[in-house]
Every structure is written in structure tokens, then in C-alpha cells.
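// run 5 | inverse folding | seed 20
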């Protein structure tokens, strides 16, 4: 039963850490544009050089 006194605070700390990391990433614009990187790989390199 003593292990529960260690595991519960560790789980809560880990959960709070994930929530803080998520909010930090969203405030930094990490999730703003999810489609452009997926489409960029399909474009030809020659098209980019002309721009």
C-alpha cells in the first residue's frame, strides 16, 4: 500500500506535465497548419526553384 503514495503523485505530475506541454505547443503555433507539410512532399523540386 505504500507504493500507492508514490504512484498517485507521480501519475498526477506526469499528467499535468502532458497538459502543460500541450498548451505550450498550441500557444507556440505547433498545430496551426497540419496539411501543408503533407502536401509539400508531393510537389516537385523543380517547381520550387522557379518561385
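// decoded
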Amino acid at each position: 500500500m505504500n507504493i500507492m503514495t508514490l504512484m498517485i503523485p507521480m501519475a498526477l505530475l506526469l499528467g499535468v506535465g502532458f497538459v502543460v506541454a500541450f498548451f505550450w505547443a498550441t500557444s507556440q503555433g505547433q498545430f496551426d497548419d497540419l496539411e501543408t507539410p503533407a502536401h509539400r512532399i508531393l510537389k516537385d523540386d523543380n517547381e520550387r526553384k522557379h518561385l
